[in-house]
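Limitations

Structures in this collection are predictions, not experimental determinations, and the ligand pose is part of the prediction. Treat each record accordingly. The example that follows, with C2E as the small molecule, is included so readers can see exactly what is and is not provided: the inputs are given verbatim, and the output is the predicted complex.
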Amino acid sequence: MRLRPPTTLSEFCDRLVSALSGPQMLAFIPALCLAGYWMGGEVTLVAVALLVPMAWMMLGGLDKLVKNRVARMPVSGLVEPDAFRERVQGMREDVIGTEYNSALIAIELDDFATLKGRFEPNAVDRVLKAVGQRLKSVSRDTDVISKVGDSRFAICLAPVKHLDLESCIQMSGRIQQAIEEPIALDGATVYVTASVGFCLQARAPKTNSQDWINAALAALNEAQRRGPTSVRAYSTELHSRLKSRANLREEVAAALEQGQIQPWFQPQISTDTGKVSGFEALARWIHPVRGAISPVEFLPAIEEAALLERLAEVIMYHTFTALKAWDAAGVNVPQVGVNFSGSELNNPRLCEKISWELDRFDLAPERLTVEILETVVTDTLGDTITLNINALHDLGCQIDLDDFGTGHASLSAIRRFGVGRIKIDRSFVMKADRDPEQQRMISAILTMAERLGIETLAEGVETVGEHALLAQLGCDYVQGFGIAQPMPFEKTLDWIRTHEAKVQDAPAIPLRRSN
Ligand code: C2E
Ligand code: CA
Ligand code: CA
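Predicted complex:
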């Protein structure tokens, strides 16, 4: 950060004291001694040699020197995290109750996992070193920089007057610009971006320096939630939002353990026969006061609480129990789709766990359909997800590609992952019976799937018109409020029986298939 010229006499004096007590002053001592000797002889030489260092120490020079000598990381020349915390503590004490302000800036590279997946560890190290160097180049010598995580850095700005939100935003922009400069690596050029969160000391929690650091990290998390290259400042509103998110995390964790979260089941039917071809298990939080809560409201809290794996266990347990109950009741439910998020699919033990559970319930693997979002398949560069999907396919589970049309899954990815069915996203199905553009899109998807030998299911079918059109175009299965809303297990048996009775009497819809 570049300093503005001083605007008042007291600021000028402050700056002068700061300059005179800096380590650079030591370099002038020999010249001052020599000048003293020339002008006043030996006595002056001795006086200058004694008084100048004493004055320097009294102005706080020694303190500064000791502080600046705090351990530095050997690789990048940055301050070690422990020493960084000490320095932050010192800066905090320096500014509290004064007109000076300081700020903590937290920086993290966007999409570091992809970078790690693409390059060797020592190449990644070089990228991180380059980032460290660039952070130093945009900071002052008196600012303190540390690497506080895998690809996470923090800068504590040395106290200055008039440091405000605007100057921190500008500083964040300069940091991002510096990081975004291309990095040359073994003939390749690497482009990285970063998100930034900061907390001005004046706005930090009044508790301690660790809370100040945490506030900057919370602002960084908030920036990252907005997407790459974002900048966010810590504020009291952010604080209360974080507090209510933390409360929700605690509540949802307790709800999961108390059995308040369970799957509801939404039927899927064959357009050929009209019969139930399966269900999709959709998580619901049966809240004692608020009733059934949609996963859209509580899934982010479950993810933040790192409980997605536990949720998958709970949903699978209830789903397998339901399959056994349908079998025992003599109704035909061939399979149930369970949603798996990217992070669940990253669990190296996932396939083993599912296989073990299927065995325990004595269920054939084809009774479980694994629903994977198209965006997860698109983004997948990590090996674990690929291995898991392939292993689940080899085990005999069916693979549904969820929300098809919202990502950019390549045809080769569809083949590689052994996708058996695509679930056409609701956005294509909406008003399809009245919108020729929608019909063209659906026809194109159906033709592609047919050529690839993959089945199709249309999601979010709400009206009889949409249902009839999809059947006519040759979509294999439909699911949506037009057929039934998701329902608790207890309602499924009645629903299936009523539906099967209706199917027996209904006339078949003529299909327009190309084969
Ligand atoms: P999804 O997998 O695409 O599930 C379909 C969503 O559309 C469900 O929302 C369902 O209730 C809703 N839906 C079904 N038919 C219609 C319709 O005709 N019209 C409209 N407007 N909506 C319809 P829900 O249950 O709120 O779930 C939202 C998302 O949460 C799901 O989207 C899925 O991605 C995720 N999810 C649900 N359960 C789980 C779970 O157990 N684990 C994980 N990881 N994700 C889950
Ligand atoms: Ca789904
Ligand atoms: Ca979907």
